Amino acid sequence: MPAVLPFEQRYGPWALVTGAASGLGKECTNQLAARQLNILAVDVNAEKLQEQVLFLQQAYNVQARALVVDLSDPTFLTEVKQATSNLEIGLVANIAGLSSVGPLLDVALETLQRQIMINCLAPLKLSHHFGRLMRERGHGGIIFFSSASALQGTALVTNYAATKAYNLILAEGLWDELRGAGIDVLGFAPGATNTPGFHHAQPHYKEIPMPYMEAGPTITEAINALGTTPSKIAGKSNRAAAFLTSRLLPRKQAIKIFGDNMRKLYPQHTP
């Protein structure tokens, strides 16, 4: 049996993390830098991104670069290729995501289309490009961030949940295609997490008995799961809830339960 490479050799020397300026993406750059990977931090928020890059350089003594791009721009991959032409990207963490809360027909079509571009097309493009380079080298890793909402139709975040289901299924299929090529792929599904993105929609999270995780343990689970399984749900409580709704309950009932909880969570967005 071949020896398992140390983390920094298996997934380094550079990691590309999208959504790196805040929330789970920011935490991911912290934990990967702590493991001595150099970081290419990707986000649309230039000011916050530069602050995070400086922090990584000072706190972890790694190389860190900021790449300000809009993942909904159809040409963004050209900028990424230029920025990484002299870098060996050994890990891609597709964390950036765009969500909106409200009935699907009340959300602007432009917003729904932008969600698909950021949540689906951007991870596909990044993983296709860097996955090919990893395959040539014989090692690397790709993480697709999904969502617990992706496990069934979820009212008020209908399109977002659908985009995250795409990420989960894409990750699992790619895991099987690349598992013999030395490349680890993971579809990771967090539940409700204490991040600015979650709080932006002003959830009434005390109104329902829902699991609620911090960003640190969530990212730690994702990193530890890479290379061990094709997909994982974050947190024991989230996994228990997923088992109940996906294995024990009829799908119709599971969808209704999630929808009822979403209406309690976001009463201000409920007709």
Automatic annotation (TrEMBL):
Pfam family for this entry, one: adh_short
Organism: Dictyobacter vulcani
Protein name as catalogued: Short-chain dehydrogenase
DNA damage as UniProt keyword: no
GO molecular function term, any single one: oxidoreductase activity
Organism superkingdom: Bacteria
Classification via SUPFAM superfamilies: NAD(P)-binding Rossmann-fold domains (SSF51735)
Keyword Cytoplasm included in the entry's annotation: no
Keywords: Oxidoreductase
UniProt-listed InterPro entries: NAD(P)-bd_dom_sf (IPR036291), SDR_fam (IPR002347), VLCFA-Steroid_DH (IPR051019)
